[in-house]
Design brief:
The protein is mostly beta strands. The protein folds into two domains: 67 residues, no CATH class; 292 residues, Kelch-type beta propeller (Neuraminidase, 6 Propeller). The protein is built from no helices and 30 strands. The strands form eight sheets. It has a four-stranded mixed beta sheet, with no helix packed on it. The protein is globular.
């Protein structure tokens, strides 16, 4: 076997490196620097499958999968992040709370480490100020779609491992707001329902995206009725959509099999009619928090389902405050819920341990009180 030891490779014109044919080993203990650029600067012509580059926008290595699949980023295997202060001193699943009305509409994004307790920290900013959007997430990216700032069809995303501002991903199939909370497995993310107020049209749309790529959403199917302001959660095989307004409050729970496409089927019913609630899950159990139930403007209910077995929800316990219009996220063991109207703007974050039953306890506070926000994490039940 022969060896060659050089400081750099280039050809005689210094416009590229020669081909290294066969098995090439680099035993140095330092590093090598791949090509670098933004998402807009991705090459598309004459690119070999398996090519590597660093993306300044996503702050991640990505690889070329071919002409029809394009560029995809490497997935982060370990979901434990940290490196902050307060609620983020330790390592664990990262929970993110998106932009909200405070009462003015903001673009600020907060984050916590779900395994700890304490106040949220600033993550960055979305691509614009909006609220009443929908969210979903993979283990590396969190997505925010639609909403109102004027009515938009924008989908943007953040990269969990690196705090910073959101990046444009693509567009929904339809501009809409007051959407149902979304859901995802490790590959697909979904955006559900919503309203176009002029003229007033409520949708039963389910859109989906392939989260490792960028691009516009495509049609998945329909939920069982036109609906807005519902809750969503997931296992690795099922996406659950519950409650909402149709144009009266409903307790319906729908589900779809995430890896397929098609219309939703009946799962069961919530134990109360709910809109403006939120949901979170691990791989086994889905939890539904608060909301408006018609007779009571805001409630402190927590209910749960076993995602693998269809049926009605049962009582889990109570939140520390009666609130609706907040956001939720989860790790494999803990669910958190923050913000909303109680009836004024709230910054309270509650937490419960998903495998048990019982009342929530105080986790800490958001950076600012606000309503009509959503939450997501890199360790939810669909991953």
């Amino acid at each position: 076997m022969s060896k060659i030891n050089v400081r750099s490779f280039s050809n005689e014109n210094e416009d590229g490196a020669p081909d290294l044919v066969g098995i090439t080993t680099f035993p140095a203990t330092s590093y090598f620097v791949p090509t670098r650029g933004t998402t807009a600067q991705r090459p598309s012509d004459h690119v070999e499958v398996g090519s590597l580059r660093y993306n300044y926008d996503t702050k991640n290595l990505e690889y070329y999968r071919g002409h029809t699949l394009g560029w995809s980023q490497f997935e982060l295997i370990d979901p434990d992040l940290g490196g902050g202060t307060g609620s983020n001193t330790g390592l664990g699943t990262r929970g993110v709370f998106g932009m909200r009305a405070e009462p003015s509409i903001t673009d600020s994004i907060d984050f916590i480490t779900i395994s700890t307790m304490g106040n949220a920290q600033d993550f960055g900013n979305s691509t614009d100020s909006r609220y009443t959007y929908s969210t979903c997430a993979s283990s590396t990216r969190g997505f925010m779609g639609g909403g109102f700032s004027g009515l938009v069809d924008t989908i943007d995303f953040v990269t969990f491992a690196s705090t910073g501002n959101a990046t444009d991903f693509g567009n929904l199939t339809q501009s809409r707001w007051v959407m149902c909370q979304g859901a995802a497995d490790s590959t697909r993310g979904m955006f559900v329902g919503g309203l176009d107020p002029g003229p007033s049209t409520t949708f039963n749309i389910i859109d989906y995206i392939t989260m490792a790529q960028t691009g516009n959403a495509v049609d998945f199917g329909d939920i069982s009725s036109t609906r807005r302001m519902g809750s969503g959660c997931q296992s690795s095989t099922r996406a659950i959509f519950a409650g909402g307004y149709t144009p009266s409050n409903t307790n319906v729970i729908d589900f779809v099999t995430t890896s397929t496409t098609g219309d939703a089927a009946d799962f069961g019913d919530l134990n109360y009619e709910q809109k403006n609630g939120s949901a979170a899950s691990n791989s086994t159990r889905g939890l539904f928090f608060g909301g408006n139930d018609g007779g009571n403007p805001y409630n402190n209910n927590i209910s749960f389902i076993t995602i693998a077995t269809k049926g009605n929800a049962a009582d889990f316990g109570d939140l520390t405050v009666s609130a609706g219009g907040g956001g939720s996220s989860s790790s494999s063991t803990r669910a958190v819920r923050g913000g909303g109207l109680a009836p004024g703007n709230s910054n309270v974050i509650d937490k419960v341990e998903i495998p048990t039953l019982g009342n929530a306890i105080d986790f800490g506070n958001l950076n600012a009180a606000g309503h009509n926000l959503q939450g997501f994490s890199n360790g939810h039940g669909g991953l």
